[in-house]
Write a structure and sequence with these properties.
106 residues, mainly alpha, 2 domains, 3 helices, 39% helix, elongated
Length: 106
């Protein structure tokens, strides 16, 4: 018999491009509810509005930028963020805004 714990969906569950046969298997959500077509539709609709709010006035998603840095710089940024009660992304965004303001073409 298949262990039902193998089919519990959590926030860290990885999904693949395979279709789950909801009729053949007993898949369960984090709340223990059996996953059915209706349950997956409700979950998908609920997750559409999830995430952080947009930074701009558009109401859409905000573009993101990823970059690499040394472990030491990351640790220092995390320490500053912790002391100031901010996120590292907010500190990086502020630093980029200040850099751009100081280097705009006149």
């Amino acid at each position: 018999m298949t262990d039902p714990k193998n089919f519990v969906v959590t926030e860290s569950t990885e999904f693949h491009d395979e279709e789950a046969d909801l009729e053949a298997h007993d898949y369960r959500g984090p709340d223990g509810e059996r996953l059915t077509e209706d349950a997956t539709e409700r979950y998908t609709a609920q997750r559409r509005g999830a995430g952080r709010p947009s930074l701009g006035d558009s109401g859409g998603t905000s573009p993101s930028v990823a970059f690499r840095l040394t472990a030491e710089l990351r640790a220092e940024a995390e320490e500053v963020a912790r002391r100031e009660g901010r996120r590292v992304s907010a500190i990086a965004r502020q630093a980029l805004e200040e850099y751009i303001a100081n280097h705009r073409a006149s």
